[in-house]
Amino acid sequence: MFFSILAAVCVLGVAYQLTYARYFATAARAEKKVGYFPWLWTAIQKSLTKKTLEKSQAVLKSWVKSYYPGWTQWVFWVLIASFVYLAASGFFFAIFIRREMFGVPLLVHVSVGALFSVSLALTLLLRARDYRLDQDGEVLFKGFARPVLKNVSKSLLQNVLFWIIAVAGFSLMVTALGSMVPVFSFEAQKYMIDVHRYAALASLLAAMGFVDIAFLPRPQAK
Which pLDDT score, from 0 to 100, does residue 80 have? Predict the structure, then answer.
């Protein structure tokens, strides 16, 4: 129950933070002020139009061709498809179903998890060097966490999120295997399942931030 509440609060909290940042930037340059919730409803409606969906699909395909040439595009698409399914099925059971995942959903979850593991490993081989943490770039957040961090660049934050996803993904692989093999005690396996859940939550939250930075254009305030 605690994890279900925590997961729901964290996902909604990150979604609110990301959308409110866009609302604040948009409201700063708008002649007519609107509230956050009317703006959000309008933005959701616009994002679901045929024109917007086609434009988003074109942007995504262009990005994939730039960074995953040739056959490597399949690595990206398998990674995304498996991640979306695992997140959807895993958190559906975690939040809405009291008992743990079981039966056919569990078998499919484990099978898709194998695809996710292979595609994530290949992604690290193909793209790890592009996400070095020593890169400089455009400042995304000014006055961030003063006095510890004054500025955070877009590239640095994106790279940090990439490695959070990678580390969380590795934790998901290890804990999934560890909870299934008859090597560890029942208590150890229960602990691994808990770690698996929190690693999945960390991965999902980091992925939300990564998508926001990497794929969605940022409104420019006046």
Answer: 93
Closest CA to 73 of 36, 30, 126: 126
Contact 204, 87 (CB under 8 A): yes
Check: CB of residue 155 under 8 Å from CB of residue 138: yes
At residue 151, the pLDDT reads: 58
Residues paired with residue 152 on neighbouring β-strands, in sequence order: 141
Domains of the chain: 2-214 (1.20.950)
* Phi/psi of residue 139, nearest 5 degrees: -75, 125
pTM summary value: 0.82
Tell me the average pLDDT across 151-172.
86
Which secondary structure element, helix H or strand E, spans residue 214, and what is its range? helix 186-214
**Tens-digit pLDDT profile for residues 58-114:** 888 888 888 888 888 999 999 999 999 999 988 888 877 767 777 888 889 989 999
> How do 139-142 and 151-153 pair as beta strands?
antiparallel
Closest CA to 210 of 1, 14, 6: 14
**Tokens representing residue 28 in the block:** 């700063």
- The answer for residues whose C-beta is within 8 angstroms of residue 171's C-beta and 6 or more apart is 195, 196, 199
Alpha carbons 38 and 34: distance in angstroms, whole number: 7
140 three-class SS: strand
